[in-house]
Specification:
155 residues; alpha+beta; five-stranded antiparallel beta sheet; two-stranded antiparallel ribbon; 5 helices; 38% helix
Length: 155
């Protein structure tokens, strides 16, 4: 009997520890427009509180520009098309995306004070925020770090 209770408690602790994530990768992107080297988009994130969702939205916006690209009436290709590059430069990207990391230098504007949200259920809300990404600066950063090749090097 003692072993059964111990097993159940251990199982409960393990399950709850894995279910608590600091960062949710659940998000949606609504591409608005691209002009003058900037991307205008709305990011929808899902989490418990507004502050966490705003930070997640900024990370998600930069990751979308880098690795996924944007699709609408026009297609805006990702800056990094080879996903192995993220694994090869893991330490750089871990440092780049750490809290208050360098990724914030490539976000010009967020509507932090005008965030809209809808309650999905008691512990989960869907937040929407508008973000402007400095795409040209982000491309230059990736080129300077030798993560992508310079476009003017020729073939």
């Amino acid at each position: 009997m003692k072993h059964t209770i111990f097993f159940i408690l251990t199982f409960f602790v393990v399950v709850t520890s894995f279910s608590q994530k600091k960062y949710s990768n659940e998000y949606e992107v609504n591409f608005v427009k691209s002009e003058n080297g900037k991307i205008y988009c709305t990011i929808f994130t899902y989490c418990k509180n507004e502050k966490q969702c705003l930070e997640n939205a900024k990370v998600d916006a930069i990751k979308t520009a880098l690795f996924r690209g944007f699709t609408s009436d026009i297609k805006l290709y990702p800056i990094i098309r080879n996903l192995d590059i993220e694994k090869e430069n893991k330490s750089y990207f871990d440092n780049f995306f750490k809290p208050n990391g360098r990724y914030l230098n490539f976000i010009e504007f967020t509507q932090d004070d005008q965030v809209e949200y809808a309650e999905i259920y008691r512990k989960k809300k869907k937040f929407a925020t508008n973000i402007v990404i400095l795409r040209d600066n982000l491309i230059r950063e990736m080129q300077n770090q030798k993560i992508i090749k310079l476009l003017d090097n020729g073939f």
